[in-house]
Structures are given as C-alpha cells and as structure tokens.
Design brief:
heterodimer; A: mainly alpha; MetI-like fold; 11 helices; B: mainly alpha; 13 helices
Chain lengths: 288, 311
C-alpha cells in the first residue's frame, strides 16, 4: 500500500517536473532554429544567427544595464531598511508591533500595479505642492521604479532578518557593553556578524526580485526600458527568435547557479556527516 | 524602545526609526493615500489643477458603469457595462486559476512532505525552484510559442492524428480566456505548492498513521486530518495565486486573444494611453478593494488569522 503510494507520488512528481520544464525546453530549442518565427516545428536547420543578432542589439544591452542599476539601487535601499525594521520589531511587542508588522507586510500582498500607480501619483503630487512640477525627480522614471520596488522588497529582507534574530543571544550584547564596547561596536562587531548570512541571502533575493519585476516598473517608468519590459515589448511587436536566444542564456545561467548551489550543499552535508560520526565515536570511546 | 537606546545609543536608534518611518510613511502609506485622494478628483489640464474645477467627485468611479455591451454568462445573455464585464471575468477566471493550482499542487505538496525520502528533498525542491527563477515574461513567452497557430502543439496533435485542422488556442476553445487560464496556472502553481508543503511538513506523521490504523480510508484521512492541518498554507497559497493572477498584466497581454480583456489591461489603458491618471487611480482603488475582500473571505472560509497568511 505505502509502496504503491510512493511510486504513484514519484510518477506524479516526474510528470510535474516535465510540465514545468517542457515549455522552457521548447523556448530554448527555438533559439537554434533557422526560421524567422520563434518555433521548433517545422525545424529548418541549426543556426547561431539569433545569438549574433542578440549580441548586436543595443536596446537589449541598454535595458540589461538599466535592470542591473535598478536592482543594485533596490538592494542598497531595501537591505538597510529591512534590517532596521527587523531590529526595531524585535525590540517592541504588543499592539504597536502587530500594527507595524501589518503595514510592513501589506505591500507584499498588494498588486504591483497598485504600488506603481500610487507611487507615481504621490511623487507627482509632491512635486506640484512644492512648485517643481517639471523637476525630473518628481516625474515618472526608473528612480520611481526603484522606490516602488523597495516598498515591497524591504518586507522580504525584514522577514528573513527577523527569522535570524530569533537565534541571537542578547546576552552577548550585554557582555560587550559591560566590557566597555561603545554602541557602534556592539552593532558592528556583535549583532551584524550574526545577521550576515540572512543579510547576504536577502540581498540576493532583493536583487533577483528587482530584476524580475514587471508590474511596478511598467507603471512607474518613463521612456527607459528594463530587461523584462524589453522582452514584453518585443513579444508584443512581432518577435524574432532573438528573444529565444536571450531566454536560452538566462536559463543556462539559472541552471549553473542551481548546480553550484547543489554541489555546495552536498559538500557541506558530507562534512557535517563526517563530523557527526566523529562526535559519536568520541562519545562511545568516553563511555568505554 | 528603551532597550534599543541602551544597546545602540540614541544616534543609531534614531537612524533605525528614520529608515522604518521612510519606508512605512513615504513608500507605503502616503502613496496609497495620494491614490485614494486623487481618485475622487477630475482629470484636468495642469493649469486647472487647484482651480475652481478641481473638486471632489465620484465621476471617475462612475465611468466603470458606461458603455453597456451584450455578453453571456454560462449561456445566459445579459447586457452590462464593458468594464464591469471585464472585471467580473477577471475575478472569476482568477478564482478558477486558484482552484486549478490548488488541485495540481496539493498532491505534490503531500508527496514531498510525507511520502518522499527526506534525504532527497533538497534536490527535489531545487528542481522545482529552477523554473521559478526564470522570469515570468519568458515563461509567458514560452507558452506563446507553444500555443501559436503554426506552433509545436498543433504540429504534435496533427502528427498523432488527434486533430486534422490546426486549433487557434489563443482564441480559446471553451471560453476566450482558455489560454490565459492555462498560462497563469503554469506561472503561479509553485506559489501554491510551497506554503502547503510547509504547512503539511509540520503535521505529525503519527496522526496520519493513527487514522489509518483506525480504519480510515485515504480520502477521509486527508479530509479530516491533513487538510485541516494544512489550512493556513492553503489559505496563504490561495491569496498569493489569486492576487498574482488578478493583477497580472503580462500574461493576458502576451497570450490573450483580443476578445479576452483583463482588468489590469483596462487600468493600464486609462493610465498610459488615455493619460487619465485619476480614472486609473479610481479603477485601481476598486481593484484593491476586491483584493482586500478576497483576503477577508479567505480568512473567514479557512478560519485563519492575517499573520498566518502573510508569512
């Protein structure tokens, strides 16, 4: 009975993975088809043309650069904001904490287009009320995309850092203070080193979330494009398999990152297993 | 608070508070307030803003009631305003997407949490994560290629002899929203899977075994033991998938037919093509209200708290 169930489960899992991967494989395959339309059937022969065209596409490179700049700006803003929010939340309790927490996670649930529209309207209104309508910082542009994205990406940082704070021993800070450390040292030498794994992970997540973002960016941008918006406009206005070449490269990058992560994880698991075995042997030796 | 000042001093504590205040006030509360306020003002040329014509009005909200069209719901012909029709379709088909992702994801979540070998779990999860890291624009584009008239799906079905003529999938077979529903389900199924997986993992396996030892058939074990325990996960998955689907602008534009309009597309037209930001704001207020309503309904149906959903 439970054997059957395991086999059925594995079958379902395999089908599910197939369902997730086949569309991506079709898209990647079409990058090599010598056909003006992006498709794999009919197959008209192998070609590298689309990769050469992609390489020569100045708009794509500009969009790519914009995406990276916005993502870096989002990381630079969201990581300090989220970390400060987690530290603040961790030191308060009761009704205030619950309210603050609600306001912090609400943007994660809010639809991207609402975030985009409200950001544009607010900065525009602010520009009008200080009498600087035409000043570029109050108009639509990638700086507003950055702020819109920060409003919800900060929440991811906050959640990750808050989780990490649960395993922090505040006694260490007390000890440091008693031994004469100043406030800056307590933060820099005691708390932050403990939080670094969470901060690094949240920086990576913030970067990729920002690269991926479409809705907020579409409503807040002016004439610039980011990579996602570029793909979108290409798909809308008659496509060439250039986009497939781009997709192929991005999928390859994803696979490489996943592979590095998996190898790293297995190595760490092996080291852990060896350590555990050693500890067990030592314990047994002591008992004897 | 005193604790923070004692540990990090007044200066650093002030920096923390300023950062948080900037986030909550300038990036979250004030923009939403601006949207709320502007949705009640008429769309005016710049010179008239602040002038006598700039008054509070419900005019922007009334625009959703204009332009009645004839359509049919479940075969019953009715005449309703076009934007209301788009709105109802968006909510209905987003709910359908939510249901489909739930049906697809639940068995897999159960398999991963309780049946699969625990040592292989990290690898299996990584396999599932890979497609999620590929951008949504590209995943929608992949389906555009598959569903297109001269595409691989039609070629495959013709080769197998299932159909003689190519099918225009993007125009839909059952309803004109078929393609959108299929692709949204594909894009967001993992947002349903992970919360349910996390919820089932925390269920004590002994409870399942006890139910089985006492003679409960597999479906009753799920209905009475596993699903009640997984409720917070199911609620949070449903909220995520519904919000993402209803708010998607990319997927309907890429794979939708001209007959299938999605509410975010309507908002985008007001905002970007008509440059009528005020009406755009009014429409997104309506949209936001429905989203909030959906969260409340989910909390009632599954009897969970907001902090269980927003994890």
């Amino acid at each position: 009975m439970s054997r059957n169930r395991a086999i059925l489960g594995q079958l379902y899992f395999a089908l599910f993975i197939l369902y997730l991967l086949v569309p991506l494989a079709v898209m990647a395959g079409a990058a090599f088809n010598d056909s003006k339309l992006p498709t794999i059937a009919p197959w008209k022969g192998f070609t590298w043309t689309w990769f050469r065209e992609l390489w020569a596409d100045q708009t794509m490179w500009g969009a790519f650069l914009n995406s990276i700049l916005v993502a870096l700006a989002v990381v630079a803003l969201a990581v300090p904001i989220g970390t400060a929010a987690a530290i603040l939340l961790n030191s308060i309790s009761g009704k205030v904490r619950a309210t603050l927490y609600g306001f912090m996670v609400a943007p994660v649930l809010a639809p991207g287009l609402v975030i985009g529209i409200s950001t544009v309207l607010f900065w525009n209104q602010l520009g009008r009320s200080v009498g600087a309508d035409d000043f570029f910082l109050f108009g639509r542009g990638l700086h507003l995309s950055t702020l819109g994205q920060v409003s919800y990406i900060s929440a991811y940082v906050m959640l990750l850092v808050l989780a990490r704070l649960q395993s922090f021993d505040p006694g260490l800070e007390e000890a440091a203070l008693d031994l004469g450390a100043n406030h800056g040292q307590v933060l820099r030498r005691i708390l932050l080193p403990h939080l670094y794994p969470a901060i690094a992970a949240s920086a990576a997540i913030a970067f990729f979330q920002s690269m991926e973002n479409f809705n907020v960016t579409l409503f807040t941008k002016a004439n610039e494009t980011t990579l996602t918006v570029y793909v979108f406009s290409q798909v809308r206005s008659g496509i060439t398999p250039k986009i497939n070449a781009l997709a192929f490269l991005l999928i390859l990058l994803t696979l490489a990152l996943a592979l590095v992560y998996e190898v790293n994880r297995r190595r760490r698991a092996r080291i852990e297993a060896v350590r555990e075995a050693e500890a067990r042997r030592a314990e047994e030796a002591m008992l004897l | 608070m005193e604790d923070l000042i004692r540990r990090y001093g007044t200066g650093l504590t002030a920096v923390f508070c300023l950062l948080v205040a900037f986030w909550i006030l300038v990036l979250v509360i004030l923009p939403n307030f601006a949207m709320f306020e502007q949705s009640f003002r008429p769309y005016l040329p710049v010179v008239d803003i602040g002038g006598p014509k700039d008054v509070f009005t419900m005019g922007n909200y009334e625009k959703i009631l204009a332009n009645p069209v004839e359509t049919s719901w479940f075969g019953i012909p009715i005449t309703i305003p076009i934007h209301i029709s788009t709105f109802v379709d968006t909510v209905f088909f987003s709910a359908l997407v939510t249901l489909m992702t739930l049906i697809l994801a639940y068995p897999l979540a159960y398999f991963l949490a309780k049946v699969a070998n625990p040592r292989s779990i990290p690898t299996l999860l990584l396999l599932l994560f890979i497609p999620m890291w590929v951008s949504e624009a590209l995943r929608a584009f992949a389906w555009y290629i598959i569903l297109t008239f001269n595409g691989p799906l039609n070629a495959l079905l013709k080769a197998l002899g299932i159909i003689d003529q190519g099918v225009r999938w993007q125009n839909g077979v059952v309803t004109s929203y078929d393609a959108i529903v299929i692709v949204l389900t594909y894009c967001y199924v993992l947002f349903m899977l992970f919360p349910i997986y996390t919820a089932i993992t925390s269920l004590d396996t002994n409870q399942i075994e006890a139910a089985e030892d006492l003679g409960s058939p597999w479906w009753r074990t799920h209905w009475r033991v596993v699903i009640p325990h997984a409720k917070p996960g199911i609620a949070s998955g449903c909220v995520m998938v519904f919000m993402l689907s209803a708010g998607s602008l990319l997927v309907p534009t890429v794979v939708g037919s001209t007959k299938a309009n999605w509410f975010p597309q309507t908002i985008y037209t007001w905002f970007n093509d008509a440059l009528d930001w005020n009406t755009g704001a009014a429409y997104s207020m309506i949209f936001l209200l429905v989203c909030i309503l959906f969260v409340i309904v989910m909390m009632r149906v599954f009897k969970v708290k907001l902090s269980d959903i927003a994890k």
